[in-house]
Amino acid sequence: MAFTTMTGSVSNHQAIVGDVPALDATGFKELLDKAAEDIVAFINSTLLVELEENTVGVSAAEKIGSGAISGVTGTTVRDQISSLKAQIAAVALGAIPDGTLTETQMADDMKKDITGGVVSVNTYLSDASFSTRRDINMHTTYIMGGLI
Length: 148
What we know:
Elements: H1 25-52, H2 77-92, H3 121-127, H4 133-147
C-alpha cells in the first residue's frame, strides 16, 4: 500500500573528508548539486508516476491512507470513495440505510404512532378510503417505494 521510497543517498557532501575538500570549485558545486538533481529525478520518474497511476490495484488512491469517517468504511481514499459510491447507489435505487429515516422525513400520515413504532402499511391502508383494488395496489407501491 505504500509509495516507493527514495533509497539513494542525498548526503553526497558528507563524503568530503576534512575541512578542505580535494575538489576544485566546479567539482564541489557538482557534488552539492547532485543531491538536488537526484531528488528531482526521483520525484519526476518515480513518485509522480505512482501518483498519476489509475490502474485498479496499484492506483495512488489505494496507497493514500485516510482517517476514519463515521458511516464510511475503508482506510484508503479509494476504499472510502467506493463505500460512499455504494451508499449513493443504494439511495438512488430507493434503498435507505438502516437508521437514516427519521420521523421528520416522513409524511405526516406515516409518522410514528403512539406506541413508538412506524404505522404499518396495512393499518395505513385500512384507514384510507380507496375505490378499487387497483388504487390500493398503486398506493401501496408508492408507499413502499418511498420507504424501502
